[in-house]
Amino acid sequence: MKKNIDKYGLCIEEYFENKNNAQVYYKRAIGKSPEMEVSKSMAKIVNQIIKKDYEVLDVGCATGHFYRSLKKKIKRNFFYTGCDPYEIFLKLGRKAWYKDKNVNFVKGNIFNLPFKSKSFNIVYSSNVLLHLPEISRPLKELLRVAKQTLILRTVVYDVSYKIQLVHNNKWFKPTKVKPKDEFDKNGNPRSFAYFNIHSFDYLKALLKKLSPKSKIKFLKDDNFSRINISKSSKKEKRPLATKIIGNEQFSGAIMQPHYFVIITK
Ligand SMILES: C[S@@+](CC[C@H](N)C(=O)[O-])C[C@H]1O[C@@H](n2cnc3c(N)ncnc32)[C@H](O)[C@@H]1O
Predict the structure, then answer these.
(1) Within a domain: 232
(2) How many domains does the chain have?
(3) What is the domain extent for residue 52?
(4) 20 to 30 A from 225, CA-CA: which of 36, 125, 243, 249?
(5) Would you place residue 229 in the very low, low, confident or very high pLDDT band (cuts 50, 70, 90)?
């Protein structure tokens, strides 16, 4: 079977040809689907700290759908750069925002960002860290390119979990792996996505090690509309679209206590 893991340990099939995901994000970028609850919350946080002509970087931007919420909420002039390794998203991002002179998309990987140190006043990365095999190099990179503030939106709990969602071609179109081949002879998944959970302790210790003078704040992402989330989950028909049980967000069987982690340098 063809090797489908990249040099950073990510399964290429997750995004490379994921047309369904790309369309979902594109519709949000052009306003055909509603803004995500998380992008509205991110825009609120950014709005509290942004100054005129600030440079904002969105790492793992997909089609730049968060820009729609930023633009709506923020009344000052600012410049947005979206960075993602996958052309399937970037080309739709460029198509969605081609008229907007303050928007720029750059191909790049969170493990090795193609930007000079302190290039952006505000850097954020939403729903990316949980899907990575390890986060210490990505955090080092994000902190390197951020001048004042880094905002992470990811899943945090009292203890860490390393979780792999295993694909098969019955429900996940981008893979050729049949249900009978989900695991290799060593029990490892052939096609997968990480859905990791990081502990408060690990994140705090890692961030303190990488940026000792920074202030770190954890903000629970619970400022969402249940109705909007369940509407879009029905509309998008993605098996793992976010659903709410009790007061918590779930993806499939996994509870996802999402937080905004705000790091001020
Ligand atoms: C779950 S989506 C999140 C998209 C958007 N940030 C949001 O919150 O809706 C994960 C995004 O991270 C991107 N991504 C995956 N691996 C990455 C990497 N190594 N470096 C940068 N971005 C990556 C994917 O292409 C995708 O756009």
Answers:
(1) no
(2) 1
(3) 2-224+257-264
(4) 125
(5) low
In this model, does residue 173 exceed pLDDT 90?
Answer: no
Q: Is the CB of 59 under 6 A from ligand 1?
A: yes
Q: Is 109 in the pocket of ligand 1 (CB under 6 A)?
A: yes
Residue nearest to atom 14 of ligand 1 (CA): 60
CA distance linking residue 66 with residue 47, whole number of Å: 13
Q: Is residue 177 within 6 Å of ligand 1 at its C-beta? A: no
* 220-224 own/partner pairs: CB under 8 Å, 24+ apart: 220/257, 220/258, 220/259, 221/38, 221/41, 221/153, 221/249, 221/258, 221/259, 221/260, 222/247, 223/37, 223/41, 223/44, 224/37, 224/38, 224/41, 224/249
The amino acid at residue 255 is: M
Q: How high is the pLDDT of residue 154?
A: 98
Nearest alpha carbon, ligand 1 atom 23: 60
5-11: long-range contacts at Cβ-Cβ below 8 A with a sequence spacing of 24 or more? 8/109, 8/111, 8/132, 8/133, 9/133, 9/134, 10/131, 10/132, 10/133, 11/167, 11/191, 11/192, 11/193
CATH number at residue 171: 3.40.50.150
Structure confidence at residue 2 as a pLDDT band (50, 70, 90): low
Residue 47 within a domain: yes
pLDDT in tens, 56-88: 999 999 999 999 999 999 999 999 999 999 999
Could you give the 3-state DSSP secondary structure of residue 179? helix
Q: Is residue 252 part of a domain?
A: no
For residue range 85-140, what is the model confidence (pLDDT) as tens digits? 999 999 999 999 999 999 999 999 999 999 999 999 999 999 999 999 999 999 99
Residues of the chain above pLDDT 90, percent: 79
